[in-house]
Design a protein that fits this description.
NADH Oxidase; globular; transmembrane; single chain; two-stranded antiparallel ribbon; 26% helix; binds flavin mononucleotide; alpha+beta; 3-stranded antiparallel beta sheet; oxidoreductase
Length: 108
């Protein structure tokens, strides 16, 4: 049977705050938002993995509905959906070909 996102016992939806929003509507730009949230998601994935949990990053397009469904403020933008849970006993993992270290690390 084809797996679905809702099979996972937990779905983490990560939002990024593009700007700070005051109660009076004042906006202040946030810097390095993509970089910061990307690093945070990477650390979260590592922590989940080290805890023995399975997780993956899903980025449906468009994701605007997530903010509406979850009632998030206008200064938050959905970044990723991360289903999390213990792997099923009969789960199968695709044999993806990974780049070698020499293909991603250039020493000078
Ligand atoms: C930022 C990001 C977004 C992704 N979005 C999707 C997606 O929307 N749909 C999908 O099938 N895979 C998506 N992937 C790929 C999978 O989440 C996953 O990285 C891939 O299956 C390899 O998983 P593994 O590194 O745990 O083996 C995305 C990966 C990244 C890094």
């Amino acid at each position: 049977m084809k797996p679905h996102l809702t099979d996972a016992p937990a779905l983490i939806v990560v939002f990024q705050q593009r700007y700070w929003l005051g109660a009076d509507g004042e906006r202040r730009k946030h810097y390095y938002v993509d970089e910061s949230v990307g690093i945070a998601v990477g650390m979260l994935l590592s922590a989940l993995h080290l805890s023995g949990l399975a997780a993956l990053v899903h980025t449906p397009s468009p994701m605007r509905f997530l903010g509406e469904v979850l009632g998030r403020p206008v200064n938050e933008k959905a970044f990723a959906v991360i289903p999390v849970g213990y792997p099923a006993a009969d789960c199968r993992v695709p044999g993806l070909v990974r780049k070698s270290l020499g293909q991603v690390l250039f020493e000078v």
